[in-house]
Design brief:
Elements lengths: L1 H14 L27 H13 L6 E8 L2 E7 L9 E2 L3 H15 L25 H4 L3 H5 L15 H6 L5 H6 L15 H15 L3 H8 L1 H4 L4 E3 L13 E3 L1 H12 L3 E2 L2 E2 L3 H7 L4 E2 L7 E4 L4 E3 L11 E6 L3 E6 L4 E7 L5 H14 L6
Antiparallel strand pairs: 1-2, 1-13, 3-5, 4-5, 6-7, 8-9, 9-10, 10-11, 11-12, 12-13
Length: 363
């Protein structure tokens, strides 16, 4: 009770002082905590959501729900026996981390820019299959926006993605050899292979595998220490979906992007990279979904229907119900993990974001 009163007094005091004086501490080691009420969120709507997840009927097979507002952790709930210290599979949420690593490498000058052609990274490979002018023109931006023009897809057993995941080596060669089906930059097709190729791009330009590069340039400032990243026998991490992290550390990554790539007084990911990552490079119209576009390995979703409609919502999304939602309009980050089934179960965190969490904002 005393702690809650103290937090409330500090909150009121900060309302009358400068932001720099009362800035919320960065959660490098521990999150500053508050309550929904103190951060202008409707506790009844959020409690209703938590209980619904716990009951497992409307939103089954979820493992965690975290909500951060104004830098404070206001909801931290775990389900089905999961605990705060447990690392969890991220699936394709890993892609957004990969985008951050590429952005850092570009900012360091290790990679020239997003218009660099992919084959420039592999001057030593002379016998690439299915070679033509289209393949020669694939750029890093095409991979970041899922528009490589290759035939790589993930639709069921026997797909190129299933074949790549069965390989112990040669992920990069497998992707480079794919046949072309369209001009690069013209057609969106969900493509983990191009993201997995980025592990090789990073290694060739930085001298470090993606996980080593992350442990040097991304994770330490955020205080991320507990993780696992699946890799092949060549040491390449599965940058398309192989990372495991604590939900609390997923929330740190969301906060990093909410703060334009800055952590404390340091610019970790270039601010311009965050802006480009959140730009709608691809327009999508998916029936029955809030998805409206795609950036640099980030999904772009519709704004809060009850808000100003000036700011989109951004999401790192992974199979089986892994989500990091970044909501600039309300200074919020929402993290969900689970083991959902495909279809409506997978989409349930998107649904309750719009049905319970956004309506809980009291502005």
């Amino acid at each position: 009770m005393k702690r809650t009163i103290l937090v409330f007094i500090v909150f009121l005091f900060c309302a009358f002082m400068t932001l720099s004086f009362c800035e919320v501490p960065w959660p490098t080691e521990q999150w500053p905590r508050s309550t929904p009420v103190e951060q202008n969120l409707d506790p009844d709507l959020l409690n209703e959501l938590v209980e619904s997840i716990r009951e497992g009927n409307e939103f089954p097979n979820l493992h965690s729900l975290l909500i951060v507002r104004n830098g404070y952790l206001v909801v931290e709930e775990y389900f089905s026996g999961y605990k705060a210290e447990d690392i969890h599979m991220l699936q394709s949420v890993s892609k957004s981390f990969t985008s951050a690593l590429v952005g850092i490498a570009v900012g360091q000058g290790k990679i020239k820019g997003v218009d660099e052609e992919i084959l420039d990274f592999f001057p030593d490979i002379k016998d690439i299959q299915n070679m033509d002018d289209r393949k020669a023109s694939i750029t890093l931006k095409d991979l970041l926006t899922m528009r490589s023009g290759t035939d790589y897809h993930e639709r069921g057993p026997g797909s190129p993605h299933y074949q790549l995941n069965a390989l112990h080596t040669g992920w990069d060669i497998f992707y480079l050899n794919r046949p072309m089906v369209s001009e690069p930059g013209t057609r969106f097709q969900y493509d983990s292979g191009g993201v997995i190729l980025m592990s090789s791009l990073l290694k060739r330009r930085t001298g470090m595998h993606a996980d080593e590069f992350a442990r040097k340039h991304l994770f330490p400032p955020l205080g991320i220490e507990k993780l696992r990243w699946f890799e092949n026998k060549e040491g390449h991490p599965h940058t398309g979906g192989g990372m495991h992290l604590r939900p609390l550390d997923m929330a740190k990554f969301g906060l990093l992007y909410l703060r334009d790539g800055k952590w404390g007084g340091r610019q970790i990911v270039p601010a311009w990279w965050v802006r480009e990552s959140f730009k709608k490079h691809v327009t999508l119209n998916q029936r029955g979904s809030w998805t409206i576009g795609y950036g640099y390995l980030w999904w772009i979703q519709s704004p809060d229907p009850e808000g100003s409609k000036k700011h989109n919502i951004y999401a790192a999304r992974g199979a089986y119900g892994q989500f990091i939602f970044v909501i600039p309009e309300h200074d919020m980050v929402v993290v969900v993990t689970g083991r959902t089934r495909s279809g409506s179960q997978f989409r349930s965190p998107i649904d309750f974001l719009y049905s319970h969490i956004l309506p809980a904002v009291n502005h």
